[in-house]
Each structure stands twice: as structure tokens, then as C-alpha cells.
Amino acid sequence: MEAVRAMVHCRLSSLAGVKTESISAAVHLDEDAMSAFVDGLLSEDETRSIISHLTSCGSCRGFTARLIRLESTFTAEDESKMAEETPSRLRRFLEGITSQVIPSGSEDAVFAYQNPDENVEKSAETTPDKPKDKA
Amino acid sequence: MQTLSNDRLRSEWAASQLLAKALCQYYGQALINTATRFATSLSESEYRKNLGSCGPDIDAIQSSCAASCPDFGLTAADFRAAIGAAADKYLIGFAPREEAPSVDEIREFVGELQHSDLYLALACERGNDHAWQQFDRDYRPFIERLARHLARTGSDADEVIDSVYAELFGTKIVDGVRQSKFKSYTGRGTLRGWLRAVVTNAVVDLYRGRQTEISLDNWSESGGEARERPSFTTQAHRAEETMVATVARERYRSVTVSALDEALGSLDDHEKLLLLYYHVDGLKLREIARIVEEPASPIRRWFQRQTKRGGKAQSGRVHESTVMRWLEKAYRKVSDHFQTCLGKKHGLTAAEIEICRDLATEDLGQGIELRAESASFEKVEAGGSQLEGAS
Q: Which position among A133, B6, B59, B241 has the lowest Cβ density within 10 Å, counted as fewest Cβ atoms?
């Protein structure tokens, strides 16, 4: 099987360059068709027609190969960046629950905790709150 | 005589167009005058009529889109025209047929389109400010990230982003109408997928324009991927070979090439494309697997039909091992056809066929560096059953 694979590899490579030259630019696939093909959104009939073109046009096939490769390299990178930029679905869900359980507003301060400053004298702990501005 | 028959053809054509227009009355009006490929004008008339019958469905989709985006300023006629153009291009152009597609087929096609994406693109094409604002909000981050991913430098990426936006907006004006790139989007695929292709093309154009080596890995615009591969027909001859040996070798070489071409030609286009993606364009197995990961993928369904005729399409993930199995099947077909061709067509004996095999292996083995993935092919294959997905 290794020998057959090697034969196929070499023959297809040498044929690919020759066939492309005979195809005029007018009959190349456009971005609309190539992206729909790569996304697998075409019907069987449409796909058959496009595959037939791709087997004889190295230019369009190369472009679709690039899109396919990009799909696997860029999508992962894109998704990780999106995750950095926007809160995850789980986080948004938890935040939603939190906002329902815990009323927002000044009461949030209840959960704020601050380590007591060791330099502050104990007497300070008993110091009553500053009187609020009457205004 | 010739003139008369041409005149008759022309009048028949004109009559069929009138008939089509009459049948389409209201809904079909905007869907006429686009290039289609029909065997007969009668089929085209029927197609227009059927398309016209889907008008209420198209209008319902338009109403739904308009309700979501009331400021886009698109009319029902604009939307019908766009849907009609998409149907002409894909339903007819890419799937030539003798008979006109039925109303149900057209309805299914229309239902598959990316309606909201198309609605946004159409409104942007017409220069609607609200649509542009939404497009910028939804897609600019994607365009920028993709451009920076593909371009060599930050300034190149900026240049690509500028040129993409200029193209999308349209810098040319023909007959008072701005020629926006959005016009070429039909809604058959997603707007995001289309933009991915547009940005990729812009990057290629940028580097092609500078006449430098394109930074995109392994990119070749003219199928010249094979440039550095050793050619089967240009192998150097060994100096120590005698003339007789060379003549015999050439004879076997030519029949080997001929048989191999015939064997490759006997494959279905699906199998050819799979082999080309793998051997010529250098796609990895997992990348090929990715394009068939959708259970409804036509390519996947085709290969599954070959594996299990009449069986139900399986919904599991397509693993690398499945793609390898498809490749292996194609290799076996090539091998069998190659051997049969040498024996029956060229009349070679079993011993001679063996010489051809050895010759091919010897020749093609020289200087070929199969990818690491190929080298580990057998190893992965051995554990393939554990990875089996959907084949």
C-alpha cells in the first residue's frame, strides 16, 4: 500500500500543476461558493458540481484547502480570544443567578471584606462611625 | 434558411419569456433576467413559475427579518430579487438539470439560506447606516482578528482590513449604483464564512501585488504546489544503465504512467478530491475530517454510501481513522485498476506487471518525503478501530 500511496502522491502532484493552467479565470469559483462548500452547507447536487471543478482546478482547490486549514487553526484561536473578551456562558449564568438571589445596590457592600490593618490601633475598632452628613 | 430558423427560435424564446413573466405576475417579476442553464426554455418557464409560487414564503421570511431589523430599509422586492439570484446560481447553475425544480425543492432551498445574514448584507450593499453599524459591531472584531492571524505584520493586517472594508462598501460606481462586494453574497453559506474567504483573498492579493513570496504556508495560486515534488516523468536516469535497459525501462515507464492515469481517472470525483487534498494540498487527516464533521455533509454521506450501501447515515464524529479508511479504499481501487489495466490493456504478464510495480516504487520512491503523518499511517491504522467514528 505504501508503494501505491507513493505512486498516487507523485502522479497527482505532477498532474495538478498542468491542469490548472488550462482553466480560465472566468470559470473559477467565487468566495460565496467556496465558503459555502467548506462550511458543508450545499446540497449533494451543488457539491458534486463543485467537487468536479475542484478536481481539475488547483487554484480553487488550493483556496478551499486554505479555508479548511484556517478553519482548524483560526477557529480555536478565535474562540479562545472571544472567551477572553466576553464572559463565558457559565459565568453569565452564575452571574444571572447571583443577581437574582442577591439584590444589587448598596447591600453589595455586605460582602466586601477587608483585612484589618495591623497598624491600626485596637482603639480604632471601637471608634464610632463618622456622623453622616446631614445634607 | 438559417436566418429563418434563427428567427423562429428567437420568437419562441421571446414567447417563453412572455409566458414566464405572465406566470410570475407579481412574485416572479424580480426573479427574472438572471442567467440560468436549462435544457429547454419550457423548463425555465416552469422554474420561474415555481419560484413565483414560493413568493409568499419569501415574503414571510422578509417580514420576519424586517421585524428584527426595522431600520434596514429593504423592500420585499429587494429580498425576492436576492433570493431569486441565489436560486439561479445554486439551484440551477451548480446543479444543472433537465427538469425544473419543484416548488417543494425551491421552498427547501429558500429555507436553507442564511436569512438574517443575507438581510444584513443586502442592507449594507444598499448603504444603510443602521445595517453598517450592526455589521461593524458584529463582524469587525472577526475581520480584524482574522487579518492579524493571516498577515505577516500589523501594518499589513491594517492594509487588508482597509481594503476589505473598501471592497465591501464599494469603490466603483456603475450607472449610478455603488458596486459593493456584498452583492456577491447570496446567503447560501454564512456571512462569517464568506468574510473568511474575502479576507483570505485580500491577504493573498496584498502579497501577490507586492510580488513577494506569500507568507501563507504552502500557498500556491496556480496549482504549482507540485513544483518541488519529483515528477514521475523527469526522473534522472542512472548513468550505468545500458541502452537496452533504458529502452526497456522507458517502455515500462510509459505503460506504467498510462495505467496509473487510467486508474486515477476511474475514481469518483469525491475520491479524487480526497486524494488531491491529502497529497497535493497537504491537508492533514484531521483537517479533512473537519469538513465532513457535519452529519449532513454531502461528502460524508457519499463516502458512507460507498461503505454501507443503503445504510443509514451515521451521526458520530468522523475521526482521522475514518478518513484514512476512505483513502485506503481509494488506494486499493487505484492499485486494482492499475494492475488490471497493465494486464488486460497492455498485455503484460504477471512478471512484467511486477517489474512495473517495482519500477514505479523505485522511481517514485526517489526523493519523496512523505509527510510525517503519512509515515505514521500504518501505526495509526493499527489502532484505528479504537478511534472509529462514523464510517
A: A133
